[in-house]
Design brief:
With 135 residues, this protein is of the alpha+beta class. It has a single domain (25-134), classed as Rieske [2Fe-2S] iron-sulphur domain (Rieske Iron-sulfur Protein, 3-layer Sandwich), CATH 2.102.10.10. The protein is built from two helices and ten strands; from the N terminus they run ααββββββββββ. The strands form three sheets. Strands 5-6-7-8 form a four-stranded antiparallel beta sheet, with no helix packed on it. Strand 3 (62-66) and strand 4 (72-76) form a beta hairpin. The chain is globular and about 40 Å long. It binds FE2/S2 (inorganic) cluster. FE2/S2 (inorganic) cluster (FES) binds at residues 79, 81-82, 84, 97, 99-100, 102, 114-115.
């Protein structure tokens, strides 16, 4: 293997480790702040979990989901009870915490404790295959 080939492969591997979500969309993924309060990033939804209805992923502390009808939702990923990352449940179109089973509506409103405060909801806009998630 030539030096140039080796460096190219190491570079690809490092990119996958550092940012697997953005790797498939180098032109469509913008880095964002790590603070959900200042969230503003884009995701290429042509591949990965958000390419199919019912899929979801967590990026920069935000859970982004695609409903069974193809709409996009974005809320804070950390449960407001003790901070465990929540899951999106497409069949009931809500968010459930796997730790103590708190439930939140599709807009982040608590529907079952022990959590007693709502998730922060983020805005989304879709342009082609580029989904912008922002405060
Ligand atoms: S951490 Fe989510 S319900 Fe307790």
């Amino acid at each position: 293997m030539k030096r140039k080939e080796f460096l190219a492969q190491v570079g690809v591997g490092a990119a996958l480790v550092l940012d697997p979500i953005c790797f498939g969309s180098l032109s469509g993924c913008k880095k964002s702040s790590t603070s959900p309060a200042n969230t503003d990033f884009t995701i290429d939804v042509s591949t990965g979990e958000l390419s199919k209805n019912g899929g979801f992923l967590i990026k920069d502390g935000v859970l982004v989901a695609r409903t069974n009808s193809g709409a996009f939702l974005a809320v804070t990923a950390a449960c407001t009870h003790e901070g465990t990352n929540i899951n999106y449940v497409a069949s009931s179109n809500n968010f459930v915490c796997p730790n103590h089973n708190a439930k939140f509506s599709s807009t982040g409103v608590v529907t079952q404790g022990p959590a007693n405060s709502n998730l922060t909801q983020y805005k989304t806009t879709l342009t082609g295959n580029s989904l912008r998630v922002f405060s």
